[in-house]
Amino acid sequence: MVLAIILFMGKVSGAHLNPVVSIAFALRKDFPWSRVTGYIVVQAVGAICAALFLYAMFGKVGMLGATLPGRGISDLQAFLMETVLTLGLVSTILGTSSRAQNVGTMSAVGVGSYIALAGLWASPITGASMNPVRSLGPAVVLGDYSHLWVYMAGPLVGAIVAVVGAFILRGPGGHDPEAQVAAQGKIGA
User: Fold this and answer.
1) 156 touches 23 (CB < 8 A)
2) pLDDT, tens digit, for every residue of 13-54?
3) How many CA atoms lie within 13 A of 182 on its CB side?
4) Looking at residue 62, what DSSP letter applies?
5) In terms of C-beta distances under 8 Å and separation of at least 24 residues, what long-range contacts does 168-176 make, across chains too?
6) Residue 82 CB neighbour total at 10 angstroms
7) Tens-digit pLDDT profile for the chain (189 aa)?
């Protein structure tokens, strides 16, 4: 799904489906901070609407896709796993959108492949959210916030570490027109 959405709307808006991606691009100076709040609000509303749609269609079947630590997994273990998973995701996104490694529309394949692989091996551990609003939507609709901090804090920390890694590997952001177009799409051009 992420691959298809990136291909469908990446050139228009940067296809930000995840607040930590918007924050990471802003930290890299490839996306204006003035647009981050609006993007996050729309992402959160979209996630809540998706959970409400699932609830209207099926009831509470499957906990509306809620992400929760697996059996025997502590919140701390889940937090660390979500941090590492998001570090990999944001590193992939930042890497495939930089001038040095920009692969254009093929970046959708890289990002989609990373999410699929992370989901295959980490879903039993944490649900492999890597996205605060992906976890927020079901939590709001179900009214269950018991583990939400894991899925808010872990991805944020992972994204910040990814930005630091990008700085070390590629230097400061904000000077790469290809990364800015990848982050903003035509809206920012």
Assistant:
1) yes
2) 777 899 999 999 999 999 999 999 999 999 999 999 999 999
3) 30
4) G
5) 170/98, 170/100, 172/29, 173/27, 173/28, 173/29, 173/30, 174/28, 174/29, 174/30, 175/29, 176/30, 176/98, 176/99
6) 31
7) 888 877 887 777 777 899 999 999 999 999 999 999 999 999 999 999 999 999 999 998 888 989 999 999 999 999 999 999 999 999 999 988 876 666 667 888 889 999 999 999 999 999 999 999 999 999 999 999 999 999 999 999 999 999 999 999 888 887 777 777 777 776 655
109 class by beta-carbon count within 10 Å (0-12 exposed, 13-18 middle, 19+ buried): middle
- 46 in Cβ contact with 64 (< 8 Å): no
Residue 73 is given by DSSP the state -
Measured CA to CA, the distance from residue 44 to residue 54 in angstroms comes to 16
The letter for the amino acid at 122 is A
With CA atoms as reference, report the closest residue to 24 among 84, 77, 92. 92
Q: Taking a C-beta distance cutoff of 8 angstroms, is the pair 47, 95 a contact? A: no
Ordered by start, the domain boundaries in the chain are: 2-188
Query: Per the structure block, which two tokens stand in for 98?
Result: 């930089």
Cα distance between residue 125 and residue 78, in whole Å: 7
- Asked if CATH classification 1.20.1080.10 holds for the domain at 2-188, the reply, yes or no, is yes
The model carries a pTM of 0.90
